[in-house]
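Q: Here's a chain of 195 amino acids. Please give me its 3D structure as tokens.
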Amino acid sequence: LKSGQAQWAPNIPPAQYTEAKSNPDLTMLEWTPANGTYRVLEFNTTRPFLADKKVREAIARSISRPDLIQLAETGLGAPQYSFINPANTTWYHQNVEKYDFDLTKAKALLQEAGYKLDGGKLLAPNGQAVAPLTCYWPSTSAPRGKIATYLQQQLKQLGVEIDVRGMDINAYTDQVGKKKDFDLSLGTYGGGSID
């Protein structure tokens, strides 16, 4: 496209988006699919610590969606609060409950759930330190590797340690999907019918 040898391309790689957008010789058209790809943080609610809704909300509130979009998606994305994309104007509902970034609220929720931050460690109601959580993601996904590192940093502010583990896709699918042996998982979904 830059040399003029091609007149059209269906996709521009995200790493080249900024350059292509600023090139006066190119006309960029952008669209957001009504059923596009989205990334999720999955909780294993069979784990006692994660079974508590206040704990899950506290973790969700320790995450800044705009920061993640910038970090992992080079700014190319939109915050999403359900599996329905905001571009799907037929089924999207803008008034779903949103757990936006708020570390103060996150810490308050953990206190309400009976946990106490002591010297950088989160203590359970029984006084024992909360065990480190394990977060799995497919190692072939560079964005999810960045998200895992971000989670490690953010949850540390709540006194929660995370062991991040990238795995090949088959091992990841087995660990998370078949065995269900995980605390946190970074999944990606999308496609399917918008109906």
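Q: Can you summarize the key feature?
A: The chain has seven helices and six strands.
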